[in-house]
Amino acid sequence: MKLTLKIWRQENANAKGKMVTYPIDGIEDDMSFLEMLDVLNEELIAKGDDPVEFDHDCREGICGACSLQINGEPHGPDRLVTTCQLHMRKFKDGDTIVIEPFRATAFPVIKDLIVDRSSFDRIQHAGGYISVNTSGNTIDANSIPVNKHDADDSFAAATCIGCGACVAACKNASAMLFTSAKVSQYALLPQGQVEAVERVENMVRQMDLEGFGNCTNTGACEIECPKGISLENIARMNREYLSATAKG
């Protein structure tokens, strides 16, 4: 395939970025999107130009590092996949592909297509954990019965990989889907009840401090999420938060 790539180039967080156009040829249908970018970078390096910086790690749809805005969609036109799992057969010969970093105030650009998503880490650190008493009086977690429906919902919430597609898809750059998945993961389990009040209050407070927008129930976050995290988690977090604030 012959393609025209319009890619956001930005030297650093303080520099002014711009779209740069690159023609590329010889792209195979079975290449992944990142492999296509590898081909482009090899050509740029051969010419003595700076390669396009983009984030990636596992290339197996597990880590969420490869987050790109492709033709206006987080992770591109496919569904339930990350960018590294997107294949070039989703595009046609002669297509123009616009590639940008995820856009959000809380995701500042580091360079080119790489953004700083450490805001998600700080939300997680605010309450996404369970403290364990190791004084010798611990109870084996496997001995505590958990309702099958709750266990399934908890596991489903836990599949969130923190890629940020929900934020990039939201017109308000809201992190409600991410935060609610991390809250739900523990709220549905008996082990998570001890710190339930502090958890939801602290994580929601940190989410707001990071500068994410509010949720307006558009639903784009669930559609674009590569793991299909459900909007039900947002409703659950709202209930948890209301309950926590009512308890004072």
UniProtKB/TrEMBL annotation:
GO biological processes: aerobic respiration; respiratory electron transport chain
Gene Ontology molecular functions: 2 iron, 2 sulfur cluster binding; electron transfer activity
InterPro entries in the cross-refs: 2Fe-2S_ferredoxin-like_sf (IPR036010), 2Fe-2S_ferredoxin-type (IPR001041), 2Fe2S_fd_BS (IPR006058), 4Fe4S_Fe-S-bd (IPR017896), Beta-grasp_dom_sf (IPR012675), Helical_ferredxn (IPR009051), SDH/FRD_Iron-Sulfur (IPR050573), Succ_DH/fum_Rdtase_N (IPR025192)
Chain ranges of the 2Fe-2S ferredoxin-type domain: 18-103
Boundaries of every 4Fe-4S ferredoxin-type domain copy: 151-181
NCBIfam families assigned to the protein according to its UniProt record, in alphabetical order: PRK07570.1
PANTHER family, A to Z: SUCCINATE DEHYDROGENASE (PTHR11921:SF41), SUCCINATE DEHYDROGENASE IRON-SULFUR PROTEIN (PTHR11921)
Family: Belongs to the succinate dehydrogenase/fumarate reductase iron-sulfur protein family.
Name used for this protein in its record: Succinate dehydrogenase / fumarate reductase iron-sulfur subunit
